[in-house]
Amino acid sequence: MRRVGTSVGTVLLVMLMLGAPAALAKPGRGGGSATCPTGSAAVVLDPGHGGGDTGATNGDLLEKDLTLDIANQTAAILENQYGLTVALTRYDDSDPGNSERGEIANACGAAVFVEIHLNGSADPSVDFTQTFWGKKRKDLDFATWMDGAMGNLTGEDGGPIANNGVGQFANGGLLAATMPSTLVEAVFLTNTWEGEQFRAGTRQGEIAQALAAGIGSWLSQ
Ligand SMILES: [Zn+2]
Questions:
Q1: What is the pLDDT of residues 38-56, one digit of tens each?
Q2: CA–CA separation, 122 vs 171, rounded Å?
Q3: Residue 83 forms beta bridges with which residues?
Q4: What is the pLDDT of residues 186-206, one digit of tens each?
Q5: Which residue has the higher pLDDT, 220 or 5?
Q6: How far is the CA of 91 from the centre of ligand 1 (A)?
Q7: Ligand 1 centroid distance, CA of 29 (Å)
Q8: Which homologous superfamily is 35-219 in?
Q9: What is the 3-state secondary structure (H, E, C) of 57-119?
Q10: Given the DSSP bridges, would you call strands 57-58 and 61-62 parallel, antiparallel or unpaired?
Q11: Ligand 1 center from residue 118 Cα (angstroms)
């Protein structure tokens, strides 16, 4: 009995050292109380803002609504075209805390975590794409990869959208998530032309396609 007990203890210790598999990682891996809404998922998408926090606005267009729409469309593409399992950090107009969003990705045992945002400026002519990393070692390569993918979006002049590159952002979600993670500021919601595209209902799908292409290709390397 004692030998068996020691053996089991050794196995558990090795698993802890290697990182527990997804099936054992929920709920609350990393000390948080977050759970994975789908049990587990290869990809966790975080629709930015929610509830009383609208994020950027352009007239009646609210960032919190558009990021949820984009996340749902991105999830559908990843599931149907790439065969990936996907969870969202919110499916309604709730507003999880920043760290909790990353902890949900941990609870899902996700391979990547993507926070979806739309940028804002007082200048309605400003429009570019950019991505951010939180912890350089785990995030920089993925953030750079996703910035390249978002750069495939078309801008107002019909060519590639301006690309502001990759930056650092000590965001609670990026810092809490243990896997490659990035915050994507896809385009500027406050831009006049972008607002027209969102009102026409076309920009949401274009952004979802760019996100899915980036995530799908990263995971099939
Ligand atoms: Zn935002």
A1: 999 999 999 999 999 999 9
A2: 23
A3: none
A4: 999 999 999 999 999 999 999
A5: 220
A6: 16
A7: 26
A8: Zn-dependent exopeptidases (3.40.630.40)
A9: EECCEEHHHHHHHHHHHHHHHHHHHHCCCEEECCCCCCCCCHHHHHHHHHHHCCCEEEEEEEE
A10: antiparallel
A11: 5
